[in-house]
Fold:
Amino acid sequence: MKKGKNKKSWWRPFLAAPILFFLAPISIGLYLTHPFPARTTKNPKDYGLDFEEIEFFSRKDQLKLSGWWIAASSKPSNKVVITAHGYTNERAMEGIEGLQLAKVLSEQGYNVLMFDFRNAGQSKGRTTGFGFFEKHDLFSAIDYAIQKKNQEKIALLGWSMGASTALIAGCEHPNVSVIIADSPFSDLEDFLKENLSFWSKLPKRPFTPIIYHSMRKLHKIDPNEVSPIYSVSNSKGKSFLLIHSIGDEAIPFTESEKIFRAISPGSPKEFWLTENGEHINSYLLNKDEYQQRVLQFLDQYFQ
Structure:
C-alpha cells in the first residue's frame, strides 16, 4: 500500500504542470482586464477651479460613468475639450498633473470635461477593454457635452489607452473636429502580440498567445475592433496632433509614427516627438511647451 501511494504521488506534479502552465497566463490576462480602479485624491477645487460633478451612461451597456464639468473661467463658451485618461489611471491624471492642464485650458476660454472610463475612479464596471469598451464611454461623454451643455465645437485629448480611444471615437463621431493623442498605440491586435510581455512580465513565447486568446474568448474583447490606424486612414474633416516621447518603452514612439503616416491626405496634422521622459510624461517634463503647442493647435483648427 505504501509503495502504491508513493507511486501515485510521484505522478501528481506531472499532471499539475500543464494546468499551471495555462493557469498563470490566463490569470494574468484576467488581472490585466480587471485592474483595481485608480483612486482620485484631488479635484479641480485644489487648482482654484469651479466645477460640477456629473454623471452619464455609456452607450455600450448603460454603465454609469462619473466626471467633472469645468467651465471656461472667463466667459461662457461653446468649445469643450474632453479628456480621456490612460490604462489604470483616472480622470485627474494625477501622475502627470492633468488638472494643471485643465486649468490652463479653462483660463484660455475652453470648457473641460474630465471623466472616468469604466472600472476607473468613481465610474462603475469591473472590466477594462483597452479601448474596446471605452470607445462607447467616450461617445457618451461627447453626447453629454452636446445634449446637456450645448457644446458646438469639440476636441478630444487623450493619453495612452485614452489617446487611442480618442482617435477611434473622434474619427467616428461627426461632431469632433480636433483630436490630440499623447502616446497612443496604432492597432491593439498588433500591439498586444508584440508588446504584451512588457505588461505581463512573462516571456513573449509561449505566454503572449495564451494571454491574448484568453482576453478574446473569456473577456469578450476583440482587439481587431480597436485600430486607431484604420480609423485615421478613413477619416476626413478632422485635425490631429500626436505627441510621443522617444524614450517611451511601454508604447514605442513608432506607434505614433505609424498613425501619423496613415492619416488621410488633406487632414491637418502635427507630430511632436519629445526628447526625454517615460510613457505619457511629455507634459510633466515640458509643461510650458506642451501647453503652448496644444493651445496653438486648438486655436488654429478649432473652427
Summary: The mean pLDDT is 90.
